[in-house]
Design brief:
Number of helices: 9
CATH topology of one domain: Arc Repressor Mutant, subunit A
Strand order of the largest sheet: 2-4-3
CATH architecture of one domain: Orthogonal Bundle
Distance between the termini: 22 Å
Strand content: 5-15%
Radius of gyration: 17 Å
Order of helices and strands: EHHEEEHHEHHHHH
Largest sheet: 3 strands, mixed
Helix content: 40-55%
Oligomer: single chain
Structural class: mainly alpha
Bound molecules: zinc ion
Length: about 200
Amino acid sequence: MSKIGVVVAGRTISEIHQAVVASRKELFMPESGRLTNLEWLLENRVQLILGVQLDIVDDRDSSVAGVHAAYNYAEKVVRIRESVMRKIRIDEPEARFTVCHEIGHICLHSNPDFFRQVLPNHLPKKICDPEWQADFFAVDFQVDRELLKQYDDPIKAAHYFQVPIWEMQLYFAQLKAQGVLASGAMTQADKCYEAAIQEGFEF
Ligand SMILES: [Zn+2]
């Protein structure tokens, strides 16, 4: 969910990765492999272990106006459009990304005290932007980094891990920018990095 003008405590990609590792452990997910059956994970692990209520709402419901899903920190409720849940059942990448983005908010931003408003024309720095944090979490949560090393093409990796292509390309670029990817292991990451810079993305 877009929250322009809201800042949170800054987090680096390695801090977000640590949060992903901790969340996967807390949710009793396997340490390696591809993430499957997100609906089951939401119903049986996110609800029961994280104590966040799952509310599947009609697409016309005002609580999801203009967004695919939304996490309400105060109520501890994640609301997801009915159409998104239908797409989750067929592993549609955008829908999977949406749900994992909301899990990111749940795991990273459960403390409302972290939030404060800033002036509308004063956007938060990338690492302090809760939307960037949840986006990075969403890809990292679905990816097995050991398996990812076998891929030098983000498009093939996106298909395998069922992540939207653009999000996987940006993920490659960010790992490359941080020196997380071994040079030569993923040569395509350089191109992604340059493309992301041209798109105006700041690292
Ligand atoms: Zn969001």
